[in-house]
Write a structure and sequence with these properties.
Shape: rod-shaped
Strand content: under 5%
Number of strands: 0
Number of helices: 2
Radius of gyration: 34 Å
Distance between the termini: 66 Å
Largest sheet: none
Oligomer: single chain
Helix content: over 70%
Length: 114
């Protein structure tokens, strides 16, 4: 009888240890799951920021394109009047350089996958 009790005691104590370790494992899974959900939420927010940044860059590119047309008109008038167009050429170069940088920025944002 005593042996039976000791056997039962040993069996039941092992089961308790197993159950406790499984609770710990389940707790870890819950923590990982919560962390994944939080990171997915942050990624979704990042997608919105990326879209907004692209919109700002596209608008800036459009505005600079309009300014380049104005520079072209001003250069034509300056040539007709015999005025130095170097300052206009410098503005045109800066605008073209900025458009190139904006285009690279837009391309980089397009390459981001979220």
């Amino acid at each position: 009888m005593r042996e039976e009790k000791s056997v039962y005691k040993a069996l039941f104590s092992e089961q308790e240890v197993e159950l406790e370790s499984r609770k710990v494992e389940l707790g870890i899974i819950d923590d990982i799951n919560a962390s994944i959900r939080e990171n997915i939420s942050r990624s979704s927010n990042a997608g919105g920021f990326i879209l907004k940044a692209k919109q700002v860059l596209i608008k800036a590119e459009s505005n600079i394109q309009k300014e380049l047309k104005e520079i072209a008109k001003a250069k034509k008038m300056a040539k007709e009047l015999g005025v130095d167009i170097k300052p206009l050429n410098n503005l045109e170069d800066k605008a073209n350089d900025f458009i190139s940088r904006i285009s690279k920025g837009i391309k980089s944002l397009n390459d981001v996958e979220i």
